[in-house]
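job 3f2a | input accepted
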Amino acid sequence: MTVLNAVFWQVSGMPTFCIPVQDGGVGFDYRLHMAIADKWIELLKRRDEDWRMGVIIHTLTNRRWMEKCVSYAESHDQALVGDKTIAFWLMDKDMYDFMALDRPSTPQIDRGIALHKMIRLITMALGGEGYLNFMGNEFGHPEWIDFPRADQYLPDGKFIPGNGNSFDKCRRRFDLGDADYLRYNGMQEFDQAMQHLEETYGFMTSDHRYISRKDEGDRIIIFERGDLVFVFNFHWSNSYFDHRAGCLKPGKYKVVLDSDDPLFGGFSRINHDAEYFTFVREAIPADIKHEGFHDDRPRSFLVYAPSRTVVVYALTKDEVKPVEAAV
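job 3f2a | predicted structure (327 res):
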């Protein structure tokens, strides 16, 4: 993860704020990508069928060239001032009764946990060069956090009720994410795995980024960041066998992060021991001139994309074994 300099970040969208002072700018290092959190709330108020992959991609990547951004899936607008957190938008009151692992889940809980993981990772992977957790979204905080406040009247006379200066909701429920008997624990484990993926591969600061597919029918998004290939299936029921994923480099790919892993509250539909090889010329139709050419990419490989999952594939770099001297 990128370490922010002392200049830190700023919230204005004005173009000069992230330009060096010697070039006539203000000198901030990063800009907060504020549109992303608002877009997720807008989408969560709609049915899955109404989500558009192109709109998601446009919102995540709509920023000035070479201007570094800090992305986040939710902000204080949801977590602090009376709106719903993303987790609560997704799962609502079911969170109070069906997050324990010793009792059956519900379709709303299964949907919510799956999409919560996908929303966080696609925001981190495409939204900028830095990523920000906010007020418990790393483990799906069930409620917004309400600080003690008294009743007040605005200058126009409008009455804003307080909460009686209550401390009841003035806390983050860290115990939920740490409890291994609750589904929150799997959501927190996924957040830790996201951070580990970035630490290992440095994809957020990679110069290479290419979005090869945003399929509105299949609800599939595929893109490359560094040596990683991200395959998102936002479809609510369709899973796809032998789905071709375009990529830049030839070779063998392996699964390095799978949101469907049981550790993260998933259903274990991906074989983590499988190896994925890019196509060679003899294995593709004769009318395709380039090796494995697919979605404007020079190579491709076949994957299984279960519904409501994200799977990340990495190009492997097998170690060469030393040649033993002849006896």
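job 3f2a | The chain is about 20% helix and 20% strand.
job 3f2a | closed
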